[in-house]
Request: fold
Amino acid sequence: MDDINVLHHRCLLNLRRRIRDIGDARPAQERYTRLHKDGDMLSYQGNSEEVGCYVAGCPLSKQNCYFEVTIVDSGVRGSIAVGLVPKFYRLDHQPGWLPYSVAYHADNGKLYNGNPVGQQFGPKCARGDRIGCGIQSENIQEGLTTVFFTKNRKEVGSVEVPLCADGLFPAVGMHSLGEEVKVDLQAHWFLDEEDSMMMMVDSHEDDWGRLYDVRVSGTLLEYVGKGKSIMDVGLAQARQPLTTRCHYYEVEIIDAGEKCYIALGLARRDYPKNRHPGWSRGSVAYHADDGKIFHGSGVGDAFGPRCFKGDIMGCGIMFPRDYILDSEGDSDQWEGLQVFPGHDSLCLYHRDEEDDEEEEEEEGEQEEEGRRVTVFFTRNGKLMGRREVVEPEGGLFPTVGMLSSGEKVKVDLHPLSG
Reply:
């Protein structure tokens, strides 16, 4: 008798799917409320007391089994949910709150599976993060399907949910002012295990201490901000400052984007997230779009040539010999800097000087102003110039800024390591 019931249930599901696929020639209609939709962009338009929800017009299928949502702006609370819901899901509820729906919530990293009470599932998500959701397999006999979630192309986890006769539809929920996302319903997820392992091995996300409107994929940085005003700067700052062991890094422009507003430089640890490196105190940077150097000011000075797709920009510090032993050591030994463009990297060395008396005379001045170091910049292996700066407490951190749509760069934080 149980076998007959299972067979009946399976036939009923197949019949309903066939009716859905061939019985209705009208185009599928997406549904949303309290949201503004502009192309693939969704933004919250409610009063933060009411949920705004979007449901796609077509369910996930074997041919289209995955979609992604990029958080463009977290808004006031970052109450953004990404998941799957039945066709006629109530639009005044977050995905995952009601039966037969499931969602990963960005603000707390919890999974909501048909219940307004969530369970701890994965990390929280913020601006620039990309949340994915897809279907891995279906168990028709038990009426279940396996749904998985990703963050920045890494799988977070999976859960089994009940099958719906009409399928499961991509959904996005929002619940606070300023929230904005970009939806990609045509995203692809490769289930090949070897590819997945390679992605984990090659990930360099841990190299970065701060990421704002920048997405990391291996050594690639991609701008994902709005790019509409100077306040929309995307910033990537390395976790570690430059040191005597690692005193130089490089950035290759993979895609110049619309304006090539790409800047490479060094900045203090607490540098403002919405300012290009070089614009504010405690930073210095070489800007690709105009070839100027910016040193703690929004006004740049002519410095070198502009940079374009394929160019490799470099930035480094030549530390004085007594840097480690004497924290107040002077760094006025820069006439000895030699740069030899090699095949894969720059070879740097510091020629000996015998100006000890001059160094002692300037030591008092350096103590008042803080330790000074000289930052240098390169373009395609050639020295462009240098600028003396005050090193802030904690050091100077490799910092990359971007500001126009489509910009992508490849970063090598250790080009001299062989």
